[in-house]
Design a protein that fits this description.
Structural class of chain B: alpha/beta
Number of helices of chain B: 4
Radius of gyration of chain B: 13 Å
Number of helices of chain A: 3
Largest sheet of chain A: 5 strands, antiparallel
Shape of chain B: globular
Distance between the termini of chain B: 35 Å
Order of helices and strands of chain A: EHHEEHEE
Strand order of the largest sheet of chain A: 1-2-3-5-4
Distance between the termini of chain A: 48 Å
Strand order of the largest sheet of chain B: 1-2-3-4-5
Radius of gyration of chain A: 17 Å
Helix content of chain B: 25-40%
Strand content of chain A: 15-25%
Shape of chain A: globular
Structural class of chain A: alpha+beta
Order of helices and strands of chain B: EEHEHEHEH
Oligomer: heterodimer
Strand content of chain B: 25-35%
């Protein structure tokens, strides 16, 4: 157990990581996007469209986290940002009731004329398509969505 | 963060130009505007997304809901979008097959 006031960090996270805690309210998702795109922009090896991909995936994860709290109260959503040479990792955590992504309701295929009847359920497929890896871990404690963007090595200047 | 709207009538088409970021916070305002247009009798609606900087699945859901509502009135929704990052969201979710997407308001209202 962590001492009072001490943040609980996942195993393997270090001092250079960034943590952002936002109220679980819709108006704060834009702040999460702003921080993530700003952090990602500091990497010169990441193209703008990849930054947009990550920004949207993180936004979707935050939206799901916020919607996990029904009705919204004083809950928080925590984002962990980890910047490594070959990858960017963002972990979005909530303490909502949790869900199992493998049991998400099946939606008709997009070719199906019934598809427009379904307005929900587009977030998880988007996340899966936008980042290189996405991992959902759900328990009674809440849900953690880890999104990874691999950054192919670039030849250092002068070599 | 603000979401801006501009409504313009072009022949039988009502053009709703959207400006800003459409996400879980702002999407309800887009939904309200679409419902308002339909209830005022606009059943051929062009949604111009050229001024949209960000669109997520909640925004897509609102557009799909609007399309459904319009079709139930024998109407239709046509989108205007040329921005690759917004088009990509429609492509990934397969909604390019559900919506008719045009490059300009002129071509969207030409039909």
């Amino acid at each position: 157990m962590a001492a009072a006031g001490e943040a609980v960090r996942p195993l393997g996270w270090d001092e250079a990581d960034v943590e952002l805690e936002i109220p679980a309210r819709a108006e704060y998702v834009s702040l999460a996007r702003l921080v993530v795109s700003s952090l990602a922009s500091s990497r010169r090896d990441l193209a703008d469209d990849r930054i947009d991909d990550l920004k949207l995936a993180v936004s979707e994860a935050c939206t799901n986290a916020i919607e996990a709290y029904e009705p919204a109260g004083e809950e928080r959503v925590v984002l962990h940002w980890r910047d490594e040479q070959d990858r960017l990792e963002v972990d979005v955590q909530d303490h909502g009731p949790g869900f199992d992504p493998s049991t998400l309701p099946e939606r008709p295929s997009v070719a199906d004329p019934m598809r427009p009847n379904y307005e929900r359920g587009l977030g998880v497929p988007l996340m899966r398509a936008l980042v290189d890896e996405v991992e959902f871990a759900s328990s009674d404690d809440g849900t953690s969505v880890i999104m990874i963007l691999f950054c192919p090595p670039v030849t250092p200047d002068g070599e | 963060m603000d979401l801006g709207f501009e409504v313009d009538q072009r022949g039988s088409y009502t053009v709703l130009a959207v400006r800003g970021e459409v996400d879980v916070y702002t999407a309800p305002r887009l939904r309200e505007r679409l419902i308002e247009l339909v209830s005022q009798g606009s059943h051929q609606v062009v949604v111009d997304l050229e001024g949209v900087d960000f669109l997520d699945s909640t925004g897509l859901g609102v557009l799909v809901g609007g399309l459904k509502r319009l079709r139930s009135h024998d109407g239709d929704m046509i989108l205007v979008c040329t921005q690759p990052r917004i088009l990509k969201v429609f492509e990934i979710t397969g909604l390019t097959k559900v919506f008719s997407i045009h490059d300009t308001v002129e071509s969207a209202t030409a039909g």
